[in-house]
Amino acid sequence: MDQVTGFDVQSYATDNRLLDELRAAWPPAEATDAPAGEEAGYVRAELDVLDPVGAVRLTDRFAVALAVRKGDRSGPFDVVPLVRGRVWRRARPGDGLSAFVAGAPMASERAVGVDQTHDSVVVGERAIVKWFRHVGPGPSRASTLLAHLAALGFRGIPAPLGSLAWRGPAGVGLTLAQGDEYLPAARDGWEWCVEHVPHDASIGSDLGTLVDWLHRSLAMPSRAIDEPVGTASPAQVGTWRERAQTTLDQALAVDDDGALAPTAEALRGAIDAIPTDRPVQIQPVHGDLHVGQVLEWSGGLAVIDFDGNPILGDEANLIRQPRERDIAQMLSSIDHVGRILDDRAGGRRTAEVEQWIAATRATFLARIERVDRVLLAAFEVEQECRDLLYAAQFLPRWRYAPLATLRSRYGR
Predict the structure, then answer these.
(1) pLDDT higher for 365 or 317?
(2) Among 163, 182, 201, where does a domain finish?
(3) Are residues 147 and 273 in the same domain?
(4) Last residue of a domain, one of 133, 164, 182
(5) Once rounded to an integer, what is the mean pLDDT over residues 266-270?
(6) In terms of domains, do 218 and 274 share one?
(7) Mean pLDDT score of the chain, rounded to an integer?
(8) How many Cα atoms are found within 13 Å in the side-chain-facing hemisphere of 351?
(9) Is the pTM of the predicted complex or chain greater than 0.85?
C-alpha cells in the first residue's frame, strides 16, 4: 500500500438486528491462537461477565459490540471488535477489520504489542488504528484533544487520519477507534532518552521545547474546545492538595522498610504548600506526559497517547488542569531515565547520573515559558508517590527509581 489518507469520522448508531443476534449467542468466540505481536501473558476482559448493549455493523463480516459489566447499564462500555466466519468472534490483527476501517481493505495488519491500555494495529505500515478498550459514558478525552490540536495545525503529533464512533443511547458520540499516521522506525523515550545518559543533557532542551509548544497550542481556542483556558477555584485547589496528601499517606503505608521516613517531613511540606487562598489557571493538558509518550522518528519528536493516566479516575483525568501537572510528570520521567542507567551500572555511576539529571532538568525548564514552582514541587512529590504505589501493586522491580529520586531531592 503506497498511502493511507484520512478516513474522517465514521459515526454509527446501534444496529438493533445485529444486537439481538449477538445477545442470542453471547459471548462471541475467541481466536484459538494469540495475535502476532501480542505480549505473552496479557489477558483481555472475559466476555462472559459482560452484557452487550450496543452494536455497530460495518459489513456482514465486520462489527463492533459495546458491552457493560452485568448489572451496570450506564457504562463505561467495553469495546469488542468482531469478525464473522462461521460465528462471530473477537477480531484480531490479520482479520482485516482495522484495514477496512482505515479505508485500505487489502492492506497488511500487525499488532503493536507494547500498548497495554489499548489495542493498536499497524495498517500497511502507513497508519496505526488504536482500538479503545473502554469508552464512555462521556466523550473520549483523547479524541477531543486530538481534534483540538488537529484544528490548530499542531504538528507535534502523528497526523490524525480519522475515527470510528458509536452514537450511544444518550446521544453522545463515543470514539471506538482512532486512526493516526504511522511513524516508521519510531522509538519511545525510554529507548532514545537513555542513550543520552550521562554525558548529553540536550534532550532536556528538546523535550522542553516540545512541551512548551504543546501547552501553548492547547491553550488556543479551536472549534473542538472554544474556551480552553480557565481557573480552578480555591476549593478545587484544596481538593488537589487533599488528593496529594492521601497519595503520600498511601505511599508511606506501603513503605515497609522505612525508606521514605527520612524524607517524609519534606515531602509533606511540599504538598502542604499548595496554595488554597487563590484561583489557579487551568487549560487542556496531556494528562500522562512522560518520556515514553514522546516518539523519536526521522521527522523529529511526536507526542502520543492523550488518554490520561489509566490508573486514575475521571476526576484526576479532567481535560483542563494546571500545566504544572504535565511538567512534573515529564521531570519525574527525566529523573527516572537517569536512574535506569545507574541501576544497570550497579550504582557505580551515581555521581555522573546526578549531574546529568540536574543539567537535563535545568535545560528542560529553561524552555518552559512560565512555571508555578510551588505547584510544580507538590505535583512532583505526588507523581513519585504514585509511581511507588504502582510499583508496590504491579511492578516491585521499579520501586528503585522513585525512591532514588525522592532520596536525592528530599533526603537532605
Answers:
(1) 365
(2) 182
(3) no
(4) 182
(5) 97
(6) yes
(7) 90
(8) 1
(9) yes
